[in-house]
Amino acid sequence: MNGDFATPGFGAKVHHEVGAGDIDWQRTEVSLGVRQYLGPISIALHGDGGLLLGSTPPPQKLFELGGDELLPGYGYKQFAGDRAAMFRAYFNYRTELFKQPIRVRNWALPGLNPGFGASIQGGWTELSSAGARAAALQLGVVNGVPVSGPTNGARATAGAGITFLSDLMHIGFARPIDHAAKWRFVIGYGPAF
Fold first, then answer.
1. Residues 68-86: pLDDT tens digits?
2. Distance CA 163, CA 122 (A)
3. Reduced to 3 states, what is the DSSP secondary structure of residue 138?
4. pLDDT at residue 142, rounded to an integer
5. Which residues of 153-180 are buried (b: 16+ CB within 10 A; e: fewer)?
6. CB-based contact 80:125 (threshold 8 Å)
7. Structural domains of the chain sorted by starting position, each given as residue range(s) with its CATH number in brackets
8. How high is the mean pLDDT of the chain?
9. How far apart are CA 176 and CA 193, in angstroms?
10. How crowded is residue 10: how many other Cβ atoms within 10 Å of its Cβ?
11. Which residues have C-beta within 8 Å of that of residue 98, sequence separation ≥ 6?
12. Strand runs labelled E in 95-182
């Protein structure tokens, strides 16, 4: 069981990757999750942490946050780092409307099963070495400013909206709550806004 799955209970995951050759690096991720159902209500908490080691890590191995699914309310992959931490909390209420699958000839499409959801997320990234900062620059630069950079402290967002397909998809609004900001329209997979 993983905190992103639909099974109630507690789950944990450790993932370690190693790259050797011209570019040596190691990347470790740790995830913890818990999910509980109370009738049509689901509550989930999920925490992640990661560490990327190497003097010249490849840019595609950096941890990236921001966008409609990880820190919604911020720009897509706005934050990057060789060290990262993330916390997410979800609250969802599934209605009993349109729960049955939709039959179209020999096909069965899932029922729309709309619901309501809200989430709070917090994240942090750091570029701890010259090699990590150089890798982040390879992600892109616009007008002399890197596209992705560290969070410079913890960042947090909150959002709410409508879920479909038993919380498989969401549509709603989210905004940063660590500073004054406007609400942004978000659409994505999973229960997080």
1. 778 988 989 999 999 999 9
2. 21
3. coil
4. 87
5. eebbbbbbbebbbbbeebebbbbbbeee
6. yes
7. 12-189 (2.40.160.50)
8. 90
9. 11
10. 12
11. 111, 112, 113, 114
12. 102-104, 107-109, 115-126, 141-142, 145-146, 155-164, 169-176
